[in-house]
Specification:
By secondary structure, the protein is of the alpha+beta class. Helices cover about 50% and strands about 20% of the residues. Strands 1, 2, 3, 4, 5, 6, 7 and 8 form an eight-stranded mixed β-sheet that branches.
Length: about 290
């Protein structure tokens, strides 16, 4: 099956579109006649990509980013709470900014080299940390709104938004470094499922045993595998997700510190404040005043 841009682009002379999609059922193998930049917002799934006679399969986790070219086909299987942002585009929409694009460190690797090498052993890919993912997704949502409203000058604003998305991703690609990117290749599916569960249920009284049960592993083995493939323990990652969510609530709501602590999964506001200060260098209240 081939999906055509005419179905998604409001104006074929401006081939750029953004869609946030909840994938509740398996998606059959299909291709596109345009490029697709995919950011995994939450959840997990088995993702298969075909190019000619080559095929590769990986378990997606929150933050995974990949680009699909028109000569590739892909499918999702066994989705678990999967939600993605799809940026659909043809390179022609960026023609006027091409000189800027080629000068951005990491962008060529992300858009061109990674797709060419993903079928080979040791191929690299990008996974955004929670804070970076939120920034990229927020920019994509602003881009989607701009394209929907089509106000005066929307094309210029939309291109600037899309350029910002690409620049943020390129920066993360460079900052991750080859070792961290390569470590994601061949990642155990259980780690992806564990990350997805942590992201989805960080506001509950989540225990290591609960995470291990979802991953179908013993708590000890999951901890070893998780640390080996992410550099963090499951508990450290859970704490990171909770603190990033707390920062969102501190910035965007007037809820009390205690309310926020309980909302993100801490059952003691004093302990939440200590953890927050250890990680951010200041108390939640001071952080809120300065943001």
């Amino acid at each position: 099956m081939l999906l055509h841009g005419a179905r998604y682009f409001h104006d074929d002379a401006f081939p750029l579109a953004v869609h946030r999609v909840a994938v509740g059922e398996p998606v059959a193998m299909h291709g596109h006649d345009f490029h697709e930049l995919v950011i995994t917002v939450r959840g997990s799934a088995s993702h298969c990509i075909e190019r000619g006679d080559e095929q590769c399969s990986r378990r997606l986790a929150p933050g995974d980013v990949f680009v699909l070219a028109p000569n590739e086909r892909h499918a999702y299987d066994e989705p678990k709470g999967l939600e993605v942002v799809n940026c659909l585009f043809r390179p022609s929409c960026l023609d006027a900014r091409m000189d800027e694009l080629v000068a951005i460190d990491g962008l060529h690797d992300l858009l061109v080299v990674e797709p060419l090498c993903r079928h080979k052993p040791g191929g690299e890919r990008l996974r955004l940390a929670p804070a970076s993912r939120r920034s990229v997704v927020a920019e994509c949502e602003a881009l989607e709104l701009e394209l929907q409203q089509t106000a005066s000058g929307y094309r210029s604003v939309a291109i600037n938004r899309f350029m910002t998305v690409l620049i943020l991703l390129a920066r993360d690609w460079v900052q991750a470094g080859p070792g961290q990117r390569a470590a994601l290749d061949g990642q155990h599916a259980a780690v992806a499922d564990a990350i997805a569960l942590i992201e989805a249920q960080h506001g509950t009284e989540l225990r290591l045993e609960d995470i291990a049960r979802e991953a179908h592993l013993s708590p000890h083995y999951l901890s070893q595998l998780f640390h080996q493939q992410t550099g963090q323990s499951p508990w450290d990652y859970l704490t990171q997700v909770r603190i990033e969510r707390a920062k969102d609530l501190l910035r965007t709501t007037d809820r009390s510190i205690t309310e926020i602590a309980f909302a993100v999964g801490f059952n003691d506001s004093s302990y939440f404040a200590r953890v927050f200060k250890t990680r951010e260098g200041q108390t939640p209240l001071k952080w809120r005043k300065g943001c």
